[in-house]
Amino acid sequence: MKQDQSLLETIHAPPDLQSLTLAQLQTLASEIRDELLSVVSANGGHLASNLGAVELTIALLRVFGGPADSIVWDTGHQTYPYKLLTGRRELFKNLRQYQGCCGFLSRDESKFDIFGAGHAGTAISAATGLAVARERQNREGRVVAVVGDGALGCGVSLEGLNSVIEATNRLIVVLNDNKMSISPNVGALSHYLNRIISDHRYNRMKGVVSRTIGRIPMVGGWLHRLIHRFQEGAKGILLDGVFFEELGFRYIGPLNGHSIEELIGTFERLKPLDSQPLLIHVLTEKGHGYKPAENDPASYHGLGRFDPETGRPVKGATADRKAAPVSFGESLGQNLCRMLEQDPRLVAITAGMCDGTGLGVVRKKYPQRFFDVGIAEEHAVVFAAGMATQGVVPIVAIYASFMQRALDYAFHDVALQKLPVIFCLDRAGVVPDGPTHHGIHDLGFWRAVPGIAVVQPANGSELREMLQWAVAAAKPCVIRYPKCDDCDGQPAQPLSAPLRPGKAETVRTGENLAIWCLGRETVTGLETAAILADNGIQATVVNTRFIQPFDSALLIEQAQTMPIVTIEDHSLGGGLGDLANGELANLPEARTRNFGWPRHQFVPWGDVSDLRRQFGLNPEHIAQEIMTLLQG
């Protein structure tokens, strides 16, 4: 190592960790935290969960980083240290930037990302599949699933736990418990028992004793059952692992997740064991090593640019919630508080994303009418449907991309039964996190569901009107809106016409073409119209408002005299453009041009303004394309 090099600069792959001493590994952990703060403060991203996973990641790669082993991560926003130690240190400097480092795991980015992870709950099932495939192929090596940040409570995780014992004995599940799930450490006795039960000699001895006692004539079986019941009873008093033991796992823990020595020692002792699946319970602190994140891990979970010295958001950064105008999520929370005060039928439900959806104020003011079911979107939908059968009006706030996991339940348990559940889908558009979080693929599904209303507000006042309309309509309804930090920022023309069910709003008139815009893209449409006006082209701009039911009469009327352009923060497949083209299919003289995200292609991660320029969804590009269209 060069004298001016940091230890982190010498790590290009997991084998490079093997020669480091314990003291050097601890120094490496400090350097990783410094790098996390440097990059995330400049680019934004997930901070607290990664700060808490540093020592765990080092230990995992030290023991299970060989080419024969595989580490499968759950909830990929805890994998920044993993990226830094698997050859992506330089790429990481461009975290979440266009053509830079993905904020989650991506098989396209690195061979070490054995399985992609953007949403929670997938690691156990995927790792079980890897382990079974390896057994069938007679391949050596261990498969480790790392589950954390509340993902264990996800329905898919529980389904995976339930099936492991029937599929394989060669799986290790590491539970990264960062105070968001499971229980705290129970003391020194637990550490002592852990060292005993994690020792492979003890486990081998346990098997020998069990077989020997079972062979004793007359009393062998009875004595074996008695000892087993005593052992499980004692473990139930001293440890929190009986649940996992009953599912067929050998439970080890809790371990100190910030002790590299304890983690490496335990992992090395457990690695040879393959007589049954193992669950290793590791306790970590979210935000560890950075006081602002330790004191307020929720606020430092995912954030924009900030000053690492003070922990305060940089002026203009998206995380500066106090200084920034109201977002759609915050508008939802404020409006719901007013509506809950007036209507006792209303309740609010979310699935592990209370603050992100703006419901923190609802939880604080109306705790008895607020329900966070954890990372269980399917349960949230059916839970709401059950309430709706009894006259309650549930308002379910979930990110649009996360809601994709529950679409069947929305169809089967809400729409089919005509239940008045209102889905408020935040992040309905492109976001910096990339394809796992872009909410741009769901409109095709919603449009295909009979009897469900789909609306999209252009600003906060429309969101309020749409909420009130949806409650009064007493039918299934979807309200979609993007991650926008200034939902009340008015465009040049105010969007103030009263809401009429199934009717669009004309916000600007012109005779050369009509620009139909979906939701907040009305601002893009008005900015485009202003550029066109500077070039002698007068455009009508329409705020669509209702996707279902749709104002086809106005569209057809306009298409008879002028070209139609559509703009949407959604894939061109299944969105507003497809809807407009279908409505005009029988109008031979109609001319259309659609602007949105490309169909049949995953949009990458990056700054949203960069992505818009790259894919031609900015006003300047749209205006130029329209001028070319009109010249043609």
Outline the fold blueprint:
Layout: H1 22-43, E1 45-46, H2 48-51, H3 54-64, E2 70-73, H4 80-84, H5 89-92, H6 123-136, E3 143-148, H7 155-167, E4 171-177, H8 188-197, H9 200-214, H10 220-238, H11 242-246, E5 250-256, H12 260-270, E6 278-283, H13 291-295, E7 302-303, H14 328-342, E8 346-350, H15 360-365, E9 370-372, H16 377-388, E10 393-399, H17 400-403, H18 407-415, E11 422-426, H19 443-448, E12 453-455, H20 460-473, E13 477-480, E14 505-508, E15 513-517, H21 521-534, E16 539-543, E17 546-548, H22 552-559, E18 564-571, H23 576-583, E19 592-597, H24 608-614, H25 619-631
Parallel strand pairs: 2-3, 3-4, 4-6, 5-6, 8-9, 8-10, 10-11, 11-13, 12-13, 15-16, 15-18, 18-19
Antiparallel strand pairs: 1-7, 12-17, 14-16
